[in-house]
Amino acid sequence: MRLTRWFLRRSLRLAAVLGVVAVVAFSLIQLAPIDPVDAYLGPQMAQVSPEQRAIIAQRWGFDQPAVSQFFHWARQLLQGELGWSHIFNQPVNEVLSQRFQTSFALLLLAWVGSTVLGFLLGVIAGMREGSFGDRLICLYAYGVASTPAFWLAIVALLLFSVTLGWTPICCAGPSGVLRNDVTWWTRLHHLLLPALTLALLGIAQITLHTRARMVAVMESEFALHAMAQGAGRWDIAWRHGMRHACLPAMTLAFASWGELFGGSILIEQVFAYPGLGQATVEAGLRSDIPLLLGIALFTTLFVSTGNLIADFLHTRIDPRLPGIAS
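Predicted structure:
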């Protein structure tokens, strides 16, 4: 019963957040200094007459007041539709579904890699504070944490794809090959470098927070008592430190879904990977309002789900924390 009330309370908060996000996102789009007809036409804007521009504006509703456009979109949303994307000429639901399926493998590989490697590096560094390995891991973590994602992606692309030729330069598959004809190995080959680059960016925070918790465990009284009885640092870390250190790592892993999606936008642009991040940039540059609003709501739902899972698991692992019981 407590779990049901907690879930309903969080669902109501999420519904309120989605409403605020929709209003703020639509207002920001309207305030942007971009003519929607020019953005829709792109380089062909000079070849279109004023009469044709008026027909285009009437076709996509650009000539309507902003409030009317928003309520028209909101009525469609209440009927389970997110509108029509004019740059992809598809329903927004289908665009989101197709693009997220492509991005899902990238996000999943990067998330699992950054969580596992970040946790292990944090444990190893925290077990022996001040050692050469600890200083080396901290140097890597601070260096990567201060490195822009697009710069790291460009360096990786130049080194591994252009210079060494180990990985493809772009895309989710070979050019000119239908998606259904691309083998799983080829897809993984194209996915490897973008996923690795995105994972490297997420490792730093998990490593540093796990290290700090592990250092606190190794300096605790029960750790000193165990050492006095002959236990080694690895025994203490394995038997006592892992559970304490997994709390910040787990919370950061699920709470970082927003940063992960933000990083994927830059990574997909650099590697020309046709996922949801690339669709976000195209929708912004060409002022595709229904698609932008759909992506904003989907991203909010995606990030909120990660936070919801993190809160739920946090209270399950450590019942002393307020959460479901409150």
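Summary: The longest strand covers residues 84-85.
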